[in-house]
UniProtKB/TrEMBL annotation:
InterPro entries: DUF2062. Keywords: Membrane, Transmembrane, Transmembrane helix. Residues 14-160 form the DUF2062 domain. This is DUF2062 domain-containing protein. The chain crosses the membrane at residues 36-62, 68-88, 130-149.
Length: 167
């Protein structure tokens, strides 16, 4: 787990260091672990370099374990972005158009002259379902992450307690 000093050594996070001087950002328990994973799962779908910064801000508001929230955003990477955003697009299309497997609009031709207009129309057509689907998928992943950590923590501690009392 990263330490408080290592997190705030970054130029991006240094301005926020004074906000995180409370112990609840650094103490790990079942409730904080589950909420930190939920924060990281939701913020992991944010675009590019804003994932950890948004996780930092949401962790501050929720008062959850900061290192775990930041680490959990790493489930998104260049290999997982396309499938996750495709899934988000399909969820948004389902909510907007009422059907699964909605055909994504074809990418415009690279002919000079009309590319700007065609590209803009493509982005609008593609963007609406995506803008709806990303937060919905983020909420779904956050809820699933929260439940898995909450129940997994309970299962692990009950199993560990039971094996310790049998000795």
């Amino acid at each position: 787990m990263p330490t408080q000093a290592s997190i705030f050594a970054s130029a991006w996070f240094k301005p926020f260091a004074r906000w995180f001087d409370r112990p609840y950002y650094w103490q790990l328990n079942r409730e904080r672990a589950a909420s930190a994973v939920a924060v990281g799962m939701f913020c992991g779908l944010m675009p590019g370099p804003t994932q950890m910064l948004s996780a930092l801000l949401v962790a501050y508001v929720v008062r959850t374990h900061l290192p775990l929230a930041l680490l959990t955003t790493l489930y998104t990477n260049p290999l997982t972005y396309v499938p996750l955003y495709y899934c988000a697009y399909q969820i948004g299309a389902r909510l907007m158009y009422g059907q699964w497997g909605h055909q994504m609009p074809a990418f415009p031709d690279f002919t000079m002259g009309h590319l700007g207009v065609e590209l803009w129309q493509w982005l609008i057509c593609f963007g609406k379902p995506l803008l709806l689907g990303v937060p919905v998928l983020g909420v779904i992943l956050a809820v699933v992450g929260y439940i898995l950590v909450w129940n997994g923590w309970q299962w692990f501690t009950s199993r560990h307690t039971n094996t310790g009392s049998q000795k």
